[in-house]
Amino acid sequence: MTGTAAPRALRLGTRASALATSQSGWVADRLRAAGHEVELVHVRTEGDVSRASLTEIGGTGVFASALRDALRRNEIDLAVHSLKDLPTAPEPGLVVAAVPEREDPRDVVVARDGLTLADLPAGAVVGTGSPRRAAQLAELRPDLTVRDIRGNVDTRIGYVRAGQLDAVVLARAGLARLARLDDATDVLPLDAMLPAPGQGALAVECRDDDPALRTALADALEHPPTRAAVDAERAVLAALGAGCTAPVAALAEPADPPALSLTVFVALGPVPLRHVTTGSDPVGLGHSAAEHLLSRLDPVDTGSHTTGA
Ligand SMILES: NCc1[nH]cc(CCC(=O)O)c1CC(=O)O
């Protein structure tokens, strides 16, 4: 048993939803291709069990917490999260060992009769549980009615198929992972519908006291440009003190290397705000964008932001 490590199957904890299974299966395949043995372990989370609205359950972390508990209890070795559902606060004892290459981060519309967003008639009812999507829809099409909905991708598309809603807005990445891109009737451009911080990206988490596994996961899965982008986007959320259910959108894209261009949308005050900045330190970029927006949001609290333009 000395020299080469005995083959040990990595226990990959996953929620049972179709999206989670697909994401976990993709990561498992990548790890197997890199020579690892992987076993999928199903874990139930409150986010899957409850039908209450995300805002009611408390939002942040409902999908992640059961997987994190299983990691800490050493029932699993790694977990795959949708990065946009992962709270920004560091989790003691755990580490995001790898951020794989992100999918197309845009949102799509799934509408009846193949309609685009622009083609929906005035008064059409569009379902989304996301305050971020609702705020941007209100800007794009103030004549539409937005209805708060919950449920997995299948459930939400089902409301359209059943005629209960005219359309729903979903992440393109989710449809791609479910091989259901054909259901999208419109892909929303980034300047119309900015995605959630981390949208389209995954986080592969493990215990921080397992250096061999951390290295193995990074070697097989890490995509540094995606890590830099999501670090910047999540730094915005963290600095705003906001979570995954906040009306905050952020997307970092490559600019002149090694710089990133960070676009942020916030609907936290009476008027939605947008801000674009460029820089090469991802976290610093996110923090400065958040500071700038906070100074515009709360002109009374001028403490350290008196020069905001
Ligand atoms: N909030 C639910 C959620 N979390 C992750 C995805 C899939 C897309 C992604 O990973 O960003 C979705 C579905 C959606 O927003 O349509």
Automatic annotation (TrEMBL):
Q: Which EC number(s) does UniProt give?
A: 2.5.1.61
Please provide the record's keywords in A-Z order.
Porphyrin biosynthesis, Transferase
Q: Which Gene3D superfamilies match?
A: Periplasmic binding protein-like II (3.40.190.10), Porphobilinogen deaminase, C-terminal domain (3.30.160.40)
The UniProt GO MF terms for this protein read: hydroxymethylbilane synthase activity
Membrane-spanning segments? none
Which transformation does this protein catalyse, written as a reaction? Answer: 4 porphobilinogen + H2O = hydroxymethylbilane + 4 NH4(+)
User: What are the S-(dipyrrolylmethanemethyl)cysteine sites (modified residues) in this protein?
Assistant: C244
Q: What does this protein do?
A: Tetrapolymerization of the monopyrrole PBG into the hydroxymethylbilane pre-uroporphyrinogen in several discrete steps.
Additional facts recorded: The porphobilinogen subunits are added to the dipyrromethane group.
**The protein's name in its UniProt record:** Porphobilinogen deaminase
What is the native source organism of this protein?
Ornithinimicrobium cerasi
